[in-house]
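stage 2 :: seqdesign
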């Protein structure tokens, strides 16, 4: 009886959060499904009184779009390469930081800095590092070409400079730059999660391994990794979700053209495709693409969850 009398207070406390979720989460999802099923839906046309038929025409247009396969390919490749690499590096760095006692807090802060830095700003810095800049200088307007920091390092070790992101650059070079940037940008969050997991591991396991003179590599893969498997599963799942939503990193490196000047849109992703449709006032096609992306993320997440049931040790 007492509990039933107090329920109204609980609902009262939850009411602001529930209202905000309904307005900014539940309704947008419902509206996205509605717009996706209205063929050739446009907000401007709807405001002018136009009517639209229900159907799957928007989904067909998305799939038949000439750049759709390229957008999907870019998104999948970025996920396939960046998630495993960033997770492995984060694991090794977290283990190293956990074992270092002097300056541990300072090093943790340094590694966490990219997480609180604007992604576009970081992308612009990476673009400057890989960029090849030519400028006119002097009274005779002599052309001075700066190969960029990365190319200067390559030439210092005897290599030749590479056209990473400029006009005429190759797709492989563009993809390499994006992978390096996304991996670097994804490390701080994963390191933070794995460090938290390492601090919760019982020290008796390591003491027993030390008594048995177990090699460090075996301790890492036979003790640390299994005990960290819940955190590893979490960072892998969130990594794939974030990878499929990749957009700001491409804009930070290449700008709104989403690729080098010689092939605008070459590095576009599914989220970029959605934004392009919205900018063209084609909300129906954007909604259909968003639902397709949601379906892909859902399937990948379910697969990861299924795999984690057999690999994760709680």
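stage 2 :: out
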């Amino acid at each position: 009886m007492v509990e039933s009398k107090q329920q109204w207070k609980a609902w009262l406390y939850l009411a602001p959060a529930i209202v905000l979720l309904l307005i900014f989460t539940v309704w947008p999802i419902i509206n996205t499904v509605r717009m996706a099923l209205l063929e050739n839906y446009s907000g401007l046309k709807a405001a002018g009184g136009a009517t639209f038929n229900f159907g799957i025409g928007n989904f067909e247009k998305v799939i038949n779009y000439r750049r759709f396969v390229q957008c999907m390919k870019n998104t999948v490749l970025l996920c396939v390469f960046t998630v495993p690499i960033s997770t492995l590096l984060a694991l090794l760095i977290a283990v190293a930081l956990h074992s270092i006692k002097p300056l541990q807090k300072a090093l943790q802060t340094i590694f966490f800095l990219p997480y609180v830095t604007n992604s576009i700003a970081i992308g612009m810095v990476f673009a400057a590092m890989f960029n090849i800049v030519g400028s006119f200088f002097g009274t005779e307007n002599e052309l001075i070409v700066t190969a960029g920091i990365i190319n200067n390092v390559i030439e210092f070790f005897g290599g030749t400079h590479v056209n990473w992101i400029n006009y005429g650059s190759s797709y492989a070079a563009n993809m390499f730059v994006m992978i390096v940037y996304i991996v670097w940008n994804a490390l701080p969050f994963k390191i933070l999660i794995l460090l938290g997991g390492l601090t919760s591991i019982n020290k008796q396991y390591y003491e027993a391994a030390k008594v048995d003179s177990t090699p460090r590599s075996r301790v890492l893969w036979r003790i640390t990794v299994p005990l960290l498997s819940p955190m590893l599963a979490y960072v892998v799942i969130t990594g794939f979700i974030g990878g499929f939503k990749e957009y700001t990193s491409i804009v930070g490196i290449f700008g709104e053209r989403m690729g080098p000047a010689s092939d605008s849109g070459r590095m576009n992703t599914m989220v970029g495709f959605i934004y392009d449709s919205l900018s063209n006032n084609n909300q129906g096609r954007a909604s259909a693409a968003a639902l397709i992306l949601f379906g892909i993320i859902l399937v990948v997440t379910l697969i990861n969850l299924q795999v984690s049931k057999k690999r994760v040790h709680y």
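stage 3 :: structure notes
- The radius of gyration is 25 Å.
- The beta strands are 133-137, 142-146.
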